[in-house]
Specification:
This protein has about 325 residues and is mostly helical. The protein has eleven helices and four strands, in the order ααααββαααββαααα.
């Protein structure tokens, strides 16, 4: 009788490789929490799994868009809040000055207003993701001129006016819709508010830009206060006091109007925040449904993995013993 031992190691290697492959598969299932054989998991019916994955992709797109809109509204509110803080300080300073009539006080408040105007314009010209926040997402950056350029233009206007009422009217016309500020100073931008898609053909608009009357009026009256020393209309102490009183009243009124603008944006922002939370919950629910289909039982997988490891250890022990057997030992 002739016995070939060459097939023994070959079969042994095949068995060992198969066990190692199974251990690797089970280890991956333990790490991912999902079965490796998706066809077995869904019993070769992928229709439900495909639908859930499509829904997950749709929800992810909605979540991304809503989150972008939420960040956009946060950027607007942050800028307006900072501007409101600066305005509150300026109003307080002007209220103190309104009881005085000194030219030095006028110069001091003008310098404060100039700094406030520069900070306001920097925020109103801010961008997010390369698009202008207060210019309906314009891709060209800030549509506002530099504060120095604007003030130089306004000082030239102010230098020609000696009557306080005419001075105020001149600036009202300059900043009015269709006025010089809009047509010649501020760069053109899209008139439609920026919109973010929310799915199913719907979208949400962020209702604010530089055409907002409250924002425009705040810029106007802060600018008037900044250039007042350049106008002959502020030379007379009585006229100067009247101008300060009028500007104080305007700035207080503008602050209230800006709060209303913030309220409109805040209402949209709250809705966006709720939408982000709702879609996040939807995604978690869909992911849980997918996990139910393709997920593996960690306890069962761990048990099977340990079983395969034990089999491999036993296999190695038998293989090692066989390799030590001589032909005589094997034939006994």
């Amino acid at each position: 009788m002739t016995i070939s031992l060459g097939s023994v190691p070959a079969r042994s290697n095949d068995v060992g490789a198969a066990i190692r492959e199974r251990i690797e598969t089970l280890s991956q299932e333990m790490a991912s929490g999902q079965v490796a054989d998706r066809g077995r998991a869904v019993r070769s019916d992928f229709s439900e799994l495909s639908r859930l994955r499509h829904d997950l992709g749709t929800s992810l797109a909605r979540h991304t868009s809503l989150a972008r809109a939420e960040r956009w509204s946060d950027g607007l509110l942050s800028a307006l809040a900072a501007n409101a803080g600066d305005q509150a300080v300026l109003i307080e300073q002007l209220a103190v000055l309104s009881g005085e009539d000194s030219g030095a006080g006028t110069t001091a408040i003008a310098l404060a207003a100039e700094d406030t105007l520069a900070a306001m314009m920097a925020r109103l010209g801010g961008t997010q993701d390369g698009r202008a926040l207060f210019a309906n997402g314009d891709a060209g950056g800030s549509v506002l001129p530099s504060p120095d350029a604007l003030l130089a233009d306004l000082r030239a206007l102010a230098a020609a006016e000696t009557d306080p009422d005419i001075l105020l009217q001149t600036f009202d016309d300059y900043f009015a819709p269709g006025g010089t500020f809009e047509t010649s100073v501020m760069r053109d931008f899209a008139t439609a508010n920026v919109r973010f898609p929310t799915g199913q053909g719907q979208s949400v608009a962020i209702p604010v830009d530089l055409d907002d009357p409250a924002i425009r009026a705040t810029l106007r009256d802060t600018a008037i206060l900044a250039i007042l020393p350049a106008s002959p209309a502020s030379t007379d102490p009585g006229d100067r006091a009247d101008l300060h009183a009028e500007l104080l009243e305007r700035l207080v009124h503008n602050s209230g109007a800006v709060v209303a603008t913030q309220g409109r944006i805040g209402t949209v922002a709250n809705g966006l925040s709720d939408g982000v939370a709702r879609v996040s919950a939807e995604m978690l629910s869909i992911e849980a449904s997918i996990a139910e289909i393709v997920g593996s039982d960690p306890y069962e997988t761990a048990s099977r993995l340990q079983e395969q490891i034990s089999r491999l250890e036993s296999h190695y022990a038998v293989t090692a013993r066989l390799s030590r057997l001589s032909l005589t030992d094997y034939l006994r």
